[in-house]
Specification:
Elements: H1 2-36, H2 48-71, H3 74-108
Helix pairs in contact: 1-2
Length: 109
């Protein structure tokens, strides 16, 4: 029991550290976007430079979105829901297994 509590405390500490890392990366990505977007030429005659600028901006926005997704805890909610489903399936499986064992024992006895 004590090992479980210590493990949970370590996980919480690691998540806090990880959230700081994502916050810093989010700020850096936003800073790059704020700096670069005015410098990128989206004129129709710019050709490959416009395409490169648009693709670069799209990837930068995806990076920002990924860090926001993590910081807002969307994954945590999904993980909790999946864990609840796993626990329910395990309980179901265990109860079916116990019923089979009980039936086998009652037939033998």
């Amino acid at each position: 029991m004590m090992k479980t509590i210590k493990a949970l405390q370590l996980i919480k500490k690691e998540k806090k550290r990880s959230k700081w890392k994502h916050a810093i990366y989010l700020i850096l990505a936003l800073g790059m976007l704020i700096y670069a977007l005015p410098l990128i030429s989206f004129d129709p005659g710019a050709g490959w430079m416009s395409l490169f600028g648009a693709v670069w901006a799209a990837f930068a926005f995806m990076v920002v979105g990924a860090h926001l997704h993590f910081l807002l805890g969307v994954n945590e909610e999904k993980q909790r829901a999946l864990e609840a489903v796993r626990r329910a399936k395990l309980r179901d499986w265990q109860s079916k297994l116990l019923k089979k064992d009980w039936q086998v024992e009652s037939k033998q006895g």
